[in-house]
Amino acid sequence: MELNKEQIEFLNKYTRGTWTFNEETGLVDIEGDFYCSDKSLTDFKGVKFGVVSNDFDCQNNKLKSLKGAPQEVGRYFSCHNNKLTSLEGAPEVGWHFCCSDNKLTSLEGAPQEVRGYFDCSNNKLTSLVGAPQKVGWHFDCSNNKLTSLVGAPQEVGENFSCYDNNMMPIPEKILKIVIKTMLEKRVNYYVALSLNNEAIEEELNKRKKHLEEIERVFVEIDANVSKDTQKTYSIISRYR
Fold first, then answer.
1. Is 13 strand, coil or helix?
2. Do residues 122 and 59 share a domain?
3. What is the pLDDT of residues 180-206, one digit of tens each?
């Protein structure tokens, strides 16, 4: 087993440090960093990476899978802004993991512990099953299609962001309380919801009253303007 000319050129071009090839395993280890971002890559030229001591950055390409990606990255791994639908083959990381702006529908294959941040925002996730269970700093799953937080991390050091999902009618204010309960009490999403049942009901009642007041105002406006003018008023629909 040996590397071909194209693979050697690929490694020489994007390695910052030194690389070594293990003929027995067929894996390439890197002492340093590997940066191949913004190169329109669809794969890693058939190279299979083993251990990368520092960073591995393959963001802003056209990757559809992580086949050949490192098994272990010492610091930062980013596959941001590709065409990934799965994290199968993703590495264990020593610090940050970023897989935002892909087409992920699942987090299966993600590392289960991340000391820094884990960013899976701007994907098509409907579930957090497979997500890391321990995140040292920041977990971001915003702008997906989540309907619940089942599978969410049991421990997050600082920030947990999950805005712009499909978890209505739970207001953002209540969602933050639920997340806090999940992390502090180490309970799952549904248990956290039940523990905050009264707060959820109270907030929804407030919003219902507020909605009724808004609708009354615009009904009165509609009753006092011409039919032509009424066509410009679609404001009520924004609150429904």
1. helix
2. yes
3. 888 888 888 888 888 888 887 787 777
Instruction: Find the domain containing 122 and state its range.
Output: 5-188
Question: Do 173 and 116 fall into the same domain?
Answer: yes
> For residue 217, how many other CB atoms are within 10 A of its CB?
11
* Residue 198 CB neighbours (<10 A): 8
Q: How far apart are CA 181 and CA 179, in angstroms?
A: 5
200 and 184 inside one domain: no
Cα(43)–Cα(41) distance, integer angstroms: 6
Residues 103, 82: contact at Cβ < 8 Å? no
Reading the block at residue 124, the tokens are 């098509």
* Element at 82 (helix H, strand E): none
CA atoms within 13 A on the CB side of 165: 25
pLDDT, tens only, 205-237: 777 666 666 566 556 556 655 554 444 444 434
Exposure b/e, 71-98, CB count within 10 A at least 16 = b: ebbbbbbbbbbbebebbeebbbbbbbbb
In this structure, which amino acid lies at residue 41?
L
Helical H runs in the chain? 5-14, 172-185, 189-195, 197-223, 227-230
Q: Decide: 77 and 98 in contact? Cβ < 8 Å.
A: yes
- Return the ∠ at Cα 140 (arms to 137 and 145), rounded to 5°: 160
- For residues 196 and 175, is the Cβ–Cβ distance under 8 A? no
Do 110 and 202 fall within a single domain?
Answer: no
pTM value is: 0.81
Question: Is the domain of 121 the same as that of 171?
Answer: yes
Please tell me what DSSP assigns to residue 208. Answer: H
